[in-house]
Amino acid sequence: MRKTILIVLAFIFCMPLCAQISYDEINSSKLNSVRQLKIKLPKDYDPSSEIKYPLIIVFDGDYLFEPIAGQVDFQTYFDDMPSSIIVGVVQGSERRYDGYCDEVTGLPKESGLRFHDFVAEELIPYLDEKFNTSKFRVAVGHDLMGNFINSYLFKEDPLFNAYVCISPDLSGTVRDYLGKRLEFFKDDIFYYMATSDKDLPYIREAVLNANSQISEVKNQYLTYYFDDFKNDTHYTLVNSAIAKSFDKIFELYKPLREKELEEKVLTYEGTLDKYLVDRYDRIEELFGIKKPITEEEFEKVVKVAEQRNDLESLEKIGKLAKKLNPESLLGTYYLAQYSEKVGKTKKAKKLYESALTLNDVSHINRDFIFSKIDELTIVDTDEEEGGEEEDNEEN
Predict the structure, then answer these.
(1) What Gene3D superfamilies does the database record attribute to this sequence (predicted)?
(2) What is the CATH architecture of 2-253?
């Protein structure tokens, strides 16, 4: 049922795509021809901005482009993946020539090698120069082209960071040594492959064999995902594979969810401000995107700190929030909470009072802050004079 709902929603997001898709042409000396491109830019794309976007290259752009563009719209709406630049290569009657590979090696030769070089030496540089692309590139291919995109993995410096191979027609060396090749990467590589129980038998057999190989690979830089769908054909599995692959490839980009909070944040050895900083540094390192930590994520991590009785983390999260957004009351509020919990009532009261002069946040009730000030005023009045002097207010 959930799968059906997702497909219907993805279809709804696809409906307005025609108005957003532009067409371009690139004159290729490698192919000695002009190739048509389908291009979809992010809705908020500004060529004068310094914001960079991942680049998704869609092989079989004739029929794969629209489903992928719709899925990207769907997942970016919920902030489950970054806005991306999507480029579909229209292959049409040239598809067999573009994907032509040696039967023994499974790697491109002749017309296939020319197309391989066209993508690497002409198309990608053209797109990098024309658009605000980040360093993160995704290749998507189905069937023949699902095998073809693997050829970039067999280069010394792979052209793409993520590979979505949907029911790939694996052959030759690629089929037999794909797992071995994936053992040697020293930079992050995402690899996704899918088949189904009703896939073409010869393709399914090769894919399952390749999956057995890759599943044995021990490489910290490889992130591998595999799906074996039920009751999908060679063609109907495409929509499910697109959704699942992007969901997995951009998993780190998603907002903090319950599973991550329970499995990683709660058990983290160290203060939780460091977990947040490292997480978002990793997003920038991988995807070339500087994503801000949201108020909701700060609040979720603070709740985990409370669950751990981790006052040190509470203080450091407060300092981090204040540093990143000094005009917001968020960081000052957390520092006030910390001071109150460690018994520094005068300091806590001052911090609560100063929080009221800063910008609101959605999940903190100002009436509650006023009540805390009143409560601490009473406590402060009842305290005997001359106790240990509290620390100065944090800058």
Answers:
(1) alpha/beta hydrolase (3.40.50.1820), Tetratricopeptide repeat domain (1.25.40.10)
(2) 3-Layer(aba) Sandwich (3.40)
